[in-house]
Every structure is written in C-alpha cells, then in structure tokens.
C-alpha cells in the first residue's frame, strides 16, 4: 500500500482521511459531510485501512468500539443475573441442597444453569478476557496514529479544514493590534501559541487526549493482576482456627510463623452506657461492638524437624480486630469469626430415689480421664466417649467429628451397693439405661465453654498490580474528564482572517473562552455551525 | 445536639421546598429580560434559598456527627439524606458553571423527594458494627454519594431534554416512557404520603405467620395488609383482614408497602392529570421553552464526565481499599459491590457510545435516565430486597 502525499508536501500513511500536517481532506468520501469528523484527527487507523487477512479481521473486530460496548453491556447484564440469588460463597449449605430448599424450582434452575457461581463461570471470565483484549487493541489502533497526527500538525491549515470546523468565522478587517491583543489573551489563558507566516495556532490541554489510553492501560494492568491470582503461591487464602490459650502454625508460611491466641473478646453495646444509641438499641436488640483476639505472633528459630517441638521467638503482640488485621512479611491475619466450643462438662452422681449427690466430676472434653474416683467407694468410669454424637445408620452410636459439638458418654457407675457397676448412656437431654433399671444416675450439672477465634490468613502478591492499575486508571480518567484539548486557529486567507476552533468536548466552555479571548477586539466571535445547522432544520 | 440536628434538617427541607417555585418564577420571567444572560431577581432568591438550605443541612450533618461520634452515613436514613444533600451541592456547583435556573426547577424536586424518602426510615442514631468502625466509612460512603449525586444531575438535565424534545401532540413509546419516569417520581411521593399518614394515625396490626422453614413468627404491619403473610393469623382486633395471602418466599409486608405506594402514586397522578388535562411531561413543556437543546445535552454529558471519576473513586477504589481491610478481600461479589460495578459499566458504555457512536441528544438523555434508575435501584432495591454484606444499611 502506498503512502499519500498531500499538496502541502507532507507524506501521510495509507488510509489517512485528513492530512496530518495541514488537514486537507484526502479521502473523497469525507467530502459529503458538512462538518469534519475530527475524531482521532482523521488519522490512518489500521482497523479502517486493512481488512484482508485473518489477523486484520480479528484486529478489526476487537478494535471496534461497537464490539467493546457490546462486551460491556453483556458483562453488565450477566452481572445482574448473579445478584438475583446469593452466590455460592455466601451460602452455608451445599449448593445442591440450598437453592432447591430456599427458592424451590427457580432456585434449582438457577443452580443447574451454574448461576450460583456466575462470576467464576468460564463464560463470565471469557467476557472479561474479551474486554481485556478489546482494551488493548482499541487503544493501540487509535493512540499511535493519533499521537503521530498531533505531533506533525502544522500551524497553517488547509481552507477546507478550517471552514468545516464546528466553530468557524470570517473577518474581513485585519488589524494587527487586534491580532496582537488576541495573542496576549491566549497566552494569559495558558494557551501554547505557535506562529507561521502570520498564521496562528493556539493549543492547550493536549495531554487530556491521552487520558483514555492511560486509563485503559490501568485497566489492563488491573485485569492482569486479577489473572496473576491463578498462579500458585501468588495468592494465599486460608482459614485458621485457634482456641484460646493455644498456639497454631500459620498455614502457608512453611511452619515459620505461629500464632498464639490468648483471649477472644466479644463486646456488645450497652444501652445504659451509650445513651445516644438507646433508642436504636431498643429497636435492634444486641449490637456487637467489637470482635477481638489478643494474639502473640511467634517465629520459629529452630530447624523444622518432624516430631520435635519447635523453638519459638516472640515477634509481636497484637489485638486483631475487624478493620485492624495483623500484618507481617506480606501476610495479613484478619479477625473473621469465632465460635464457642464446649470445654468441659460436669456431672454429679446421685441416687435416683433420694436425688442426693454422692460426688461430683468435671470431664475435660478434649481429654477425658478413664476413671474418676469420687471416694467412699464411689467411682465413675468412662467406657465410651462420642464427642460429636449421632446414631449411625445401623443404630449404633458413633461420632461425626472429633469436635465436642454434641458430647455423649457411656458411663459405668460404681457404688458400694453396686460394686460391679451400672451402665448408663448419657447424651445431652437424653439418658438410656441399656441393662435395665439403675440405682444411680449421672445428673447434669453444668458446662464450661471456650472460645475459638476464626482467622483468615491472606497473602496477596497480586496487590501491587491491582493498586498500580487502579492508580493509573484514576489518573487517566481524571486527565481525560477534567481537562479538554482545545485548539484555536487564527489564519490569514485571501486577505481575510479566519478563525476556527475545535475541542474534544465541552463546547460551551470553549465558546465562553473564545468570547474572552476576542474581547476588546473587532474580531467576530466564530459561529457554532452545528447549532445553526440544527436551527435551520428545526425552523426555529 | 441530636434535636438541634433534626431541626436543622427540617429547616433545610423547608428552604428547598420554598426555593423550588422561585426557580419556576425565574424561568417564567426570563422572557422579559430577553437575551440578558444574567440571573433575574427570582433566580437570585431561588439560589440564595438553596444555598442557605444547603448550609442548614450541612449543620444537620455536623451536629449529628458530633452527637453520634461517627459520620452520619451509616444507615438508610443517614445515607439517603446525605445523598439528597450531595444532590443539592452538586446542583449548586453546576449552577455556577452554567447559570441556568431551569436545572434547579428539575433538580430540587428530586432532592426533596430523596430527603422525604429518607425520613421514612428509622431516624435513631445507631451504633456502628465492627466492620463499619473505620475512617473509610466517611471517605468511601461520602465519595460514593457525591459521585452519584453529580451523575443524578445528568438525569435532571436529561429529563429537561426529553420534556423539550419529545413531541407531545401524539402518543408514542417516547411519551409513554417519559410519563413512566414522571409517574415513578410521583410514586415516591405516594410512598412518603401513605407512610406519613399511617404512621401519624398510629396504625398497627400484628400477624402470626409461617416462614418457608415452617417456623411460626410474628410480623408487624404499619399499614393495613392488602397482601397478608404466609398462613397469616391476624392478632390485632379490628385489624384489616388481608385480601390476598402471599407464599412464604415473598416478603408480604414489603410488597404491601409497595402496593400502597403505587396506589397512592396513582391517585396523585390521576389528580395531577385531572388538573392539567394532559400528560405531566406535556404540562412541563412550557417551562422548558427557552432552553437550548444542545446546551442541556452538554450539561448532562458534563455531569457524567465530572461524576464518573468521583463515583469510580468512591464506589470502586475506596470501596476496594476498605473491603481489603475489613473483609480481607478487595472484591467479593457482594450484591452491592456488583451493583456498583454495574453502575460503573453502564456509565462507561454511556461514554463510549457518546464518544464513538455519536449518541448525542435524545439517545444520550435516555441513557442518563437509565443511569439514574440503576443508581436508585442500587440505593433502594439492593438494600431492601437483595440482602448481602451491606444489608445493615437496610435498617
């Protein structure tokens, strides 16, 4: 393909609509329009020029803003779908049960269509990926020729170019004093003024033209950061439960760090203490004021040998609260939840007839003893212990987990009357005497609980990309939105002074500025050709 | 301090209310001044009232902050009120750029509706749950509200454009949808009216009802139940018997409120139509006679351009920073987050359509209206219907 040489002498790349240097119309198709299409300065965009090979076709597809907008709209609609019912990360039952149980056939359908994990679905990710590709190609297709065109633009412009700007006016009187004054005004208003053979180009805010591309680069980096998460090791997200008084290795740290939980604190707002909140608290009931775990972070200083107790060195004490995570070496530990666990249960052994206690025992649910000697010939043996009791399918008692959620015991009660012992099965609110009537019983006395703090351990090595992308996006968007690229041409043609002006947006502001620039001169304010065109049509 | 605060809010509301007809006067008498660009006497009074009202509302904000110890943006009442204030603030800023009283005539009623709507929610000063105890509460929420308010100005300008541009002599899809916009605004007024009437009369009735898990609960209605709860049993003597019983999956009480609001809206709308004897949009048409279409189009677009970066900063960037600190992840696909993303995607599409596909004028005005609908959906529906991590804002 050949380059096009304009009559002004500038050689333009193939496909150029408006000469980069003087603005003469090179593409005949443009002639029909009254006003010039000034987008991208009429530069030669690859997508508008080539359409032969498969690469061209793909390039042209993704470089189209129409396609880009469709991708945005499709993503938008898909995102709406995902908010109709809770997503799988916000439900506490298995999804195959939850959706049907909570929302009936509609929930079932929602789940079957995969909408319960919509934002992790392949097609949603594909949409995002396509937006990413579109961002890259759209930007490249436009920014390179636009940059070139703005760089080589000359001061003197072709008549056709000036005449067909939206703001345009002709003055027959030329007055050097006026022109000088205008130049002063332009400079006061921070215009960059260039002169060539008595022609003048005043320009400002060109950098705002790069705003869109900078924000697109920011978005690309942001999406790249999101992609990094799929690389193993870049993103750690683990739950860590630590009981009060215990120490646990922080997961994914190679057993280098240990966390000791000294105390979990749950505080509620007190109506009497906080008079300001009295009414709200009466209406809402209990409102949590604080979730806090007082922890100590340790670092292992000994070698990591299996079976050997690690030697720990204290790093720091910290109060982990919501909004105040504990940060160390790229890891963060967040206060995420808590649970109260049964710690111990106490019973007393009593004669069923008299209900009189003959001795008490406290059973540590983590580590129950085999025999509890109550003295005077009384003793209790634990024959079997089910920390998380349930009846198995065959009717035998069994335990679901090792966590004492629902403890049950098979006791053997030894007394002077029954030295060989009586057997009793005791669970919460339930007593079974498998071998007939007993003389003695295990009466429930009380429980003690112990808190376990739930932490989330995070290490996110992708954050830098997310932050960088976010910052670039904001810079670009502000640069593009809050500044305008304005150009004013004041040129001498056929013994007249022609004034044309262009801005990429905010025409109202440009018009006001021109009024101020031409103040105190005899020069006419250029007319808005687009508006006069419309007024003609509307007949107002 | 708390009572001073609510008095100031009331004063602000009254001032905004009084200012609105002055904006009308400013336009009516503009003809006499002809080409004179400056604001006339009516306009000056209108803007002055608005500014004094804004200062009063700022007073409300500051005194409530002092009383509660945290920025009053932590529940539905506080946030929505702040949004109304931001809307007035955004209008004042745009007014001083473009000097058009007409924008005030369309923005102030929206701001009034927003504030009135806000005051239908519990106004008690409430304590902050742990997740909200962060200075990011102030930064994130206020920035979002300001961004959304600036975007809402583009809605007001868009409506002006549509009122002027749409031919009201024959009915069409365009007249229908513009009228639908007008009706939605009146339905909000309807909600405020019925809520106020029933709460002033102290209406109250209680039901025993069965939820979807088969548990029996108590539900209290503050409006006569048109739609009753699932297997509801009316406990209040002389209470209104529900006309229809809802399945357990539907929140019958909220639906009931919506039905009452729509009915009140319909009555109000009918009355207005009776007086006007034409569509509301047609009735508004004489007011916009003197405005230049390109000019409103530009105000609308400019508001989007100013509002979009602010919204992005507040609704996405600050939101992510805070979410990272409070919930350990910057993004978690919580419904509120997703709807912020949807709003953002929508305005991104809006700007691309305008820049590259030349969607100026009427198309752009419709987009501004849709954008506002999305913002309102996020404010109202996502808080009240779609529960999520942000649902504390629903009380």
Automatic annotation (TrEMBL), chain A:
What are the recorded Gene Ontology BP terms? cytochrome complex assembly
Membrane-spanning segments? 67-85, 122-144, 213-231, 463-483
Q: Where is the ResB-like domain?
A: 65-515
- Answer yes or no on keyword Transmembrane helix: yes
> Which superkingdom?
Bacteria
Q: Per its UniProt record, what InterPro entries does this chain match?
A: Cyt_c_bgen_Ccs1/CcsB/ResB, ResB-like_domain
Record's Gene Ontology CC terms? Answer: membrane
Alphabetic keyword roster: Cytochrome c-type biogenesis, Membrane, Transmembrane, Transmembrane helix
Query: Among its keywords, does the record have Flavoprotein?
Result: no
| Subcellular localization, as worded in the UniProt entry | Membrane
Q: Which Pfam families match?
A: ResB
Membrane topology classification? Multi-pass membrane protein
| UniProt-recorded name of the protein | Cytochrome c biogenesis protein ResB
Which organism does this record belong to?
Answer: Neobacillus novalis
Automatic annotation (TrEMBL), chain B:
GO MF terms here are:
heme binding
Name the Gene Ontology biological process terms.
Answer: cytochrome complex assembly
Under Pfam families, the record lists: Cytochrom_C_asm
Spell out the subcellular localization from the entry. Membrane
The superkingdom of the source organism is Bacteria
Q: Where are the transmembrane segments?
A: 6-24, 44-67, 79-98, 103-121, 141-163, 175-198, 258-276, 304-326, 338-355, 367-389
Where is each Cytochrome c assembly protein domain found?
A: 267-390
Record key words, sorted? Cytochrome c-type biogenesis, Membrane, Transmembrane, Transmembrane helix
Keyword Methyltransferase among record annotations: no
InterPro entries referenced in this protein's UniProt entry, alphabetically: Cyt_c_assembly, Cyt_c_biogenesis_CcsA, Cyt_c_biogenesis_CcsA/CcmC
Q: Could you tell me the membrane topology recorded for this protein?
A: Multi-pass membrane protein
Cellular component (GO) terms are: plasma membrane
Fetch the PANTHER family from UniProt: CYTOCHROME B_B6 PROTEIN-RELATED, HEME EXPORTER PROTEIN C
Q: What protein name is recorded for this chain?
A: C-type cytochrome biogenesis protein CcsB
Provenance organism: Neobacillus novalis
């Amino acid at each position: 393909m050949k380059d096009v040489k304009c009559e002004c002498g500038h050689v333009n790349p193939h496909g150029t609509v408006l000469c980069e240097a003087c603005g003469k119309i090179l593409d005949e198709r443009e002639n029909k329009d009254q006003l010039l299409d000034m987008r991208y300065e009429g530069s030669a965009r690859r997508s508008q020029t080539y359409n032969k090979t498969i690469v061209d076709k793909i390039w042209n597809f993704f470089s189209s803003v129409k396609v880009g907008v469709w991708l945005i709209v499709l993503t938008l609609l898909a995102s709406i779908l995902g908010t109709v019912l809770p997503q799988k990360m916000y439900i506490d039952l298995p999804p195959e049960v939850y959706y049907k149980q909570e929302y009936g056939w509609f929930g079932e359908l929602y789940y079957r269509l995969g909408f319960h994990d919509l934002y992790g679905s392949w097609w949603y990710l594909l949409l995002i990926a396509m937006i990413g590709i579109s961002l890259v190609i759209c930007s490249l297709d436009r920014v390179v020729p636009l940059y070139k065109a703005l760089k080589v633009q000359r001061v003197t412009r072709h008549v056709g170019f000036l005449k067909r700007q939206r703001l345009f006016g002709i003055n027959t009187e030329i007055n050097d004093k006026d022109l000088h004054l205008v130049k002063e005004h332009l400079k006061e208003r921070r215009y960059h003024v260039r002169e060539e053979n008595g022609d003048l180009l005043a320009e400002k805010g060109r950098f705002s033209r790069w705003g869109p591309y900078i924000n697109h680069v920011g978005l690309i980096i942001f999406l790249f950061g999101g992609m990094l998460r799929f690389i193993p090791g870049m993103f750690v997200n683990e739950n860590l439960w630590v009981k009060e008084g215990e120490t646990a290795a922080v997961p994914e740290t190679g057993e280098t760090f240990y966390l000791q939980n000294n105390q979990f604190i749950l505080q509620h707002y007190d109506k009497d203490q906080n008079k300001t909140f009295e009414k709200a608290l009466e209406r809402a009931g209990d409102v949590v004021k604080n979730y806090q775990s007082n922890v100590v972070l340790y670092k292992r200083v000994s070698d990591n040998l299996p079976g050997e107790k690690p030697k720990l060195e204290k790093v720091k004490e910290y109060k982990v609260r919501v909004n105040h995570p504990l940060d160390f070496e790229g890891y963060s530990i967040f206060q995420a939840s808590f649970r109260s666990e049964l710690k111990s249960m106490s019973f007393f052994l009593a004669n069923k007839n008299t209900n009189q206690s003959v001795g008490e025992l406290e059973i540590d649910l983590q580590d129950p003893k085999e025999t509890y000697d109550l003295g005077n010939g009384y003793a209790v043996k634990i024959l079997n212990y089910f920390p998380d009791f349930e009846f198995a399918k065959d009717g035998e008692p069994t335990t679901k987990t090792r966590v004492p959620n629902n403890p049950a015991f098979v006791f053997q009660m030894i007394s002077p009357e029954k030295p060989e012992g009586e057997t009793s099965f005791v669970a919460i609110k339930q007593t079974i005497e498998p071998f007939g009537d007993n003389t003695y019983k295990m009466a429930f006395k009380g429980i003690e609980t112990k808190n376990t703090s739930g932490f989330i351990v995070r290490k996110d090595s992708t954050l830098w990309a997310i932050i960088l992308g976010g910052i670039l996006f904001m810079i670009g968007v502000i640069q593009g939105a809050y500044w305008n690229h304005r150009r004013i041409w004041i040129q001498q043609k056929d013994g007249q002074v022609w004034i044309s002006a262009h801005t990429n947006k905010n025409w109202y502001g440009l018009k006001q500025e021109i009024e101020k620039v031409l103040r105190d001169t005899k020069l006419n304010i250029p007319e808005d050709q687009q508006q006069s065109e419309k007024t003609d049509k509307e007949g107002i | 301090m708390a009572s001073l605060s609510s008095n100031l809010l009331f004063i602000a509301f009254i001032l905004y209310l009084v200012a609105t007809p002055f904006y009308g006067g400013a336009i009516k008498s503009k003809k006499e001044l002809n080409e004179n660009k400056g604001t006339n006497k009516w306009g000056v009074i209108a803007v002055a009232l608005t500014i004094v009202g804004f200062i009063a509302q700022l007073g409300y904000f500051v005194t409530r902050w002092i009383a509660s110890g945290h920025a009053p943006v932590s529940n539905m009442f506080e946030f929505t009120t702040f949004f109304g204030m931001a809307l007035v603030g955004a209008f004042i800023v745009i007014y001083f750029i473009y000097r058009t009283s007409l924008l005030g005539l369309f923005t102030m009623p929206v701001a009034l509706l927003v504030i009135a709507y806000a005051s239908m929610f519990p106004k008690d000063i409430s304590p902050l749950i742990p997740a909200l105890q962060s200075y990011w509460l102030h930064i994130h929420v206020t920035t979002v509200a300001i961004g959304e308010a600036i975007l809402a100005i583009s809605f007001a300008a868009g409506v002006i454009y549509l009122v002027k541009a749409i031919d009201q002599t024959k009915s069409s899809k365009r007249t229908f949808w513009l009228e639908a916009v007008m009706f939605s605004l009146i339905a909000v007024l309807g909600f405020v009216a019925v809520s106020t009437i029933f709460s002033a009369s102290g209406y109250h009735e209680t039901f025993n009802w069965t939820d979807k898990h088969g548990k029996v609960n108590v539900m209290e209605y503050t409006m006569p139940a048109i739609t009753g709860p699932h297997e509801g049993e009316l406990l209040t003597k002389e209470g209104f018997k529900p006309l229809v019983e809802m399945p357990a999956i539907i929140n019958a009480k909220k639906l009931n409120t919506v039905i009452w609001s729509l009915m009140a809206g319909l009555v109000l709308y009918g009355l207005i139509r009776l007086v006007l004897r034409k569509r509301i949009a047609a009735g508004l048409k004489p007011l916009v006679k003197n405005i230049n279409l390109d000019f409103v189009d530009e105000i609308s677009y400019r508001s989007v351009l100013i509002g979009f970066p602010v919204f992005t900063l507040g609704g996405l960037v600050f939101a992510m920073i805070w979410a990272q600190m409070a919930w350990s992840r910057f993004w978690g696909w919580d419904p509120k987050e997703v709807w912020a993303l949807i709003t953002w995607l929508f305005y991104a599409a809006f700007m691309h359509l305008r820049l590259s596909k030349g969607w100026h004028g009427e198309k752009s005005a419709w987009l501004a209206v849709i954008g506002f609908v999305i913002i309102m959906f996020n404010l109202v529906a996502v808080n009240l219907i779609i529960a999520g991590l942000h649902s504390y804002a629903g009380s």
